[in-house]
Amino acid sequence: EEFLVEISGTTVTITCPLDEESTSWELSGTKAAVTGGKYTIENHDSSPVNVTCASGAQKYAMYLNARVCTNCEELDALAVTGIITADLLITLGVLILVYYFSKDRKGRASSSAGSRQRGQKMQRPPPVPNPDYEPIRKGQREVYAGLQARGF
Question: Which residues contact 46 (CB under 8 A, 6 or more apart)?
Fold first, then answer.
């Protein structure tokens, strides 16, 4: 058999497995003035305590390490499920909005100060040749001496 522990705010109620009215309680070696099947600790300070209940020759002991708080709210499983579902739906909605607004901007030309409008197409000068990729000229054979002409 097991103890039944109920926590509400800073109140801890312990029910002994013995159902007798002559049950005596002991907390960390100190006898409690309460007798009966239930023992209530008001304003528990979350400190660990050894709890013992006894009736005649039968004795049950338990180590109680209950954390309590004054401003806690108890939530049932339905409320927690609702909160998580609402959070996921809001997050999904924001993601969809960001996707559609960013999709529209890709097709538009930017109107920043660095861009200029195109009028008539102006001829551009040819790009400056890269000296690393110059074609072989007749007077520069020694630079490319390692290359052999292939005979077809």
Answer: 66, 67, 68
